[in-house]
Specification:
mainly alpha; three-stranded mixed β-sheet; 2 helices
Length: 162
């Protein structure tokens, strides 16, 4: 805020100062009007969404508590639920697009590596009894295998079971 001591004595300098202040006020007014328009549009969209969701809630309430003649059939009820699920998905997607995820929200990537080599390794193979094909009586072929490793703690030793 300017005080009287801060004002210049020259009339041309005063005019320039008044014009600058006027320009700044016009810019601020234009910016505030644009923001007001944006907020009005957002409010209109929010009001429309609230109205739509309120009508869905009213339909569910009528289905649950209304007279027999006012009840919804199962298909109509399912359609309403689908609309709510779609709206919820869009709202979540919009929220995630607007707010970037924080570093702590991201799942942590873990690389546990392999178990130490000095541990005793015990292999357990789970196999089937019948190793012949039921239709052609030929031997079965190994298609693939799944390997799971876990660390087992025995009171005296540690072993690597594979």
């Amino acid at each position: 805020m300017l005080t009287q001591a801060d004002l210049p004595d020259d009339i041309d300098a005063l005019r320039a100062l008044v014009l600058e202040q006027s320009r700044m006020l016009v810019e601020e007014r234009i910016a505030s009007e644009a923001r007001l328009t944006e907020l009005g549009v957002a409010k209109g969209e929010a009001d429309a969404e609230i109205e739509r969701l309120q009508s869905i809630i009213d339909a569910f309430m009528r289905h649950r508590f209304g007279r027999r003649s006012e009840h919804l059939d199962a298909d109509q009820l399912q359609l309403g639920l689908e609309d709510v699920e779609i709206a919820l998905g869009h709202a979540r997607a919009a929220r995630e697009a607007l707010a970037p995820r924080a570093r702590s929200d991201l799942p942590r990537k873990t690389n546990r590596g392999s178990l130490p080599a000095h541990l005793e390794r015990i292999e357990q193979i789970v196999d089937i009894e019948d190793k012949f094909c039921p239709c052609c009586s030929g031997p079965l072929h190994q298609i693939g295998e799944d390997v799971a490793e876990r660390l087992e703690h025995n009171p005296i030793t540690l072993a690597h079971i594979r």
